[in-house]
Design brief:
The protein is α/β, with parallel strands linked by helices. The protein folds into two domains: 44 residues; 183 residues, Rossmann fold. The protein has eight helices and seven strands; from the N terminus they run ααααβαβαβαβαβββ. It has a seven-stranded mixed β-sheet with strand order 3-2-4-5-1-6-7. Helix 6 links the parallel strand 2 and strand 3. Helix 4 crosses helix 5. The protein is globular, with a radius of gyration of 18 Å.
Length: 237
């Protein structure tokens, strides 16, 4: 199943339609669903839940792995990483989000995009957007986290921007060692180089990851790439 846009964007379109045409939201949602080939929004939602990529990705990730999650801007990489973390928390595991991009309000907005609330997860969810975030900082903050936790770092390239922190390769080694020692999954969201040519029909790959400074991507255990609703998870040899 391939939607024309991620479901949160379809919901946003429905809300705009509801306001613009002064119709009930449920009617606008059903209209949007019909444009996607479903008789109603409830049928579309059920199908999305059945084919939720976050669940399938999580089932393939093992404790102690360092994972790269890459896509061009606007293709849902941050939301997918967030949903993988939520699926882990639904299973009783801890979830941690480290971001140099999002404010507290924006993180709560991400929960809203997937019809969830941060308060429902209590102490299982932790969020940190300190300007001090680095490989060492994250490792220190994970000192008390439970085995099996899913940790999302948004995003790889920003860790490479502060001169006072170790180089990116050293930070990734710190995170890899941390993932193995704590038996947690650490997911690094990553930008894709502007040179990636989407018109080829192929998903981006490791060679398309944007790296201002050198990094041997073999340090990752797995890599997941997105583009236009398509997804591929692969082992990193």
């Amino acid at each position: 199943m391939k939607l024309s846009a991620p479901i949160y964007r379809l919901k946003r379109e429905a809300k705009l339609m509801s306001r613009a045409e002064r119709i009930p939201l449920h009617e606008a949602l059903d209209r949007i669903a019909r444009t996607e080939g479903f008789g109603s929004w409830s049928l579309l939602s059920a199908k999305v839940a059945e084919n939720k990529p976050a669940s399938s990705v999580l089932s393939e990730l093992k404790e102690g792995e360092l994972v790269l999650l890459g896509a061009r801007s606007g293709h849902g990489k941050t939301l997918l990483g967030f949903e993988i973390m939520i699926e882990a928390m639904k299973a009783g595991r801890d979830g941690r989000l480290f971001t140099l991009e999002y404010t507290d309000e924006e993180v709560h907005g991400l929960f809203g995009h997937v019809d969830e609330k941060a308060s429902d997860y209590g102490s299982r969810f932790g969020f940190d957007n300190s300007d001090e975030i680095s490989g060492d900082y994250i490792a220190d903050k994970l000192a008390g986290v439970s085995a099996g936790a899913v940790v999302v770092v948004d995003y790889l390239q920003i860790l490479d921007q502060r001169r006072e922190t170790p180089d990116l390769a050293a930070q990734m080694q710190t995170l890899k060692d941390c993932a193995r020692a704590k038996r947690v999954v650490i997911i690094l969201i990553s930008q894709i180089d502007r040179g990636y040519r989407a018109q080829t029909g192929e998903l981006p790959g490791l060679s398309d990851v944007r790296l201002p400074n050198p990094l041997d991507l073999a340090i990752f255990d797995k890599a997941c790439f997105l583009h236009n609703g398509e997804m591929q998870l692969e082992e990193v040899a």
